[in-house]
Design goal:
9 helices, mainly alpha, single chain
Length: about 180
């Protein structure tokens, strides 16, 4: 009996080769070298990792959120439409069009939160993962003006289901 495929086994090369930090154009060029389903998994992986670490506020404040539109599709395609809907609702707070570039998103975040959102400023970043803060009842400065806080539980409460869906999606493409 073949061993179960982990989604990570199927996206590791894309994770290493697709640059999400430089710009949307650089991301798009790198992503075009991989099948769409691998980019679905890459986007859901990065998005879930960031949200579990620091919530949507941290996600949108980092370069990783260049992947948000791909993550919406990815969550839907892996079979977790609730995560797709929650992410779309959070993105809608930015207005249209969604700001793919980090600098543009940072400016809109400052407007949404009423304070600077530079990760280096400590205003929207915590070294304590959001799920730990939430379970311990710890409030951080990021929590006090977080317009996305109502959407975070959609991801945190579904963590195991999301990872299982990602593995299943990878498994369904293992012959591809």
């Amino acid at each position: 009996m073949p061993s179960k495929t982990s989604y990570w086994d199927r996206i590791e090369s894309a994770y290493e080769e697709v640059d999400i930090y430089e710009s949307y154009e650089v991301f798009r060029t790198g992503a075009s070298k991989f099948p769409e389903w691998q980019i679905d998994l890459l986007a859901t992986h990065w998005t879930l990792s960031e949200i579990l670490n620091g919530g949507l506020l941290q996600y949108f404040g980092n370069s990783t959120a260049v992947l948000a539109p791909e993550a919406i599709l990815g969550f839907r395609r892996i079979g977790v439409p609730e995560a797709s809907t929650a992410l779309q609702s959070a993105m809608d707070l930015f207005g249209a069009p969604y700001p793919r570039e980090h600098d543009d998103r940072t400016k809109r975040l400052a407007t949404l939160t009423g304070k600077p959102t530079d990760v280096g400023s400590g205003e929207s970043f915590s070294f304590i993962p959001k799920w730990v803060r939430d379970s311990a009842g710890i409030k951080s400065s990021a929590d006090t003006s977080d317009p996305f806080a109502t959407f975070d539980p959609e991801f945190i409460s579904r963590e195991e289901a999301l990872y299982a869906a990602m593995d299943h999606y990878a498994e369904s493409h293992s012959a591809a």
